[in-house]
């Protein structure tokens, strides 16, 4: 195989896409409202990818995504990822996200602290928002303190973190401290 390939596949939430290279999975595209929009998003981000039959690694990832979206607990540890375009910090964030057990969540601050970069919560949030490996790297398990947005990322499609966490049986509200419940965190300021 030369270059990048992609494939569209059926899941319990709609038709997802996967993009891969000879090195590994490059990205997972969650379904948009219509399949044509999912394909359009793939072409916008990966114009060099050509539709083809999934390689063995991509097929393993597809099987895991399908299982996860049916409420299963797949093991993605054998799926190779192509991290060629991913910064070192983002890789560390993604590795940490993969260590979060199913049904549990962590905040951006907790991830930053665990990575030894306690002042880097904003950088963690940016890394999560840029996660190209949706579901394989469970960015939906990393939340803003006190709440969580309903969208995964600009490329997350129509499914929300709330829905993915519900599939896993997570209850992120229960993880709030008493202080957070009594004094809700102010919404983040828009970035300029």
TrEMBL record:
Domain Methylated-DNA-[protein]-cysteine S-methyltransferase DNA binding: 89-170
Alphabetical list of SUPFAM superfamilies matching this protein: Methylated DNA-protein cysteine methyltransferase domain, Methylated DNA-protein cysteine methyltransferase, C-terminal domain
Record bears the keyword DNA damage: yes
Any one GO molecular-function label of the UniProt entry: methylated-DNA-[protein]-cysteine S-methyltransferase activity
Reaction equation(s) it catalyzes: a 4-O-methyl-thymidine in DNA + L-cysteinyl-[protein] = a thymidine in DNA + S-methyl-L-cysteinyl-[protein]; a 6-O-methyl-2'-deoxyguanosine in DNA + L-cysteinyl-[protein] = S-methyl-L-cysteinyl-[protein] + a 2'-deoxyguanosine in DNA
Keywords linked to the UniProt accession: DNA damage, DNA repair, Methyltransferase, Transferase
A GO BP entry: methylation
Pfam families reported for this sequence: DNA_binding_1 (PF01035)
Protein name per Swiss-Prot or TrEMBL: Methylated-DNA--[protein]-cysteine S-methyltransferase
Organism per entry: Bradyrhizobium frederickii
Source taxonomy: Bacteria, Pseudomonadati, Pseudomonadota, Alphaproteobacteria, Hyphomicrobiales
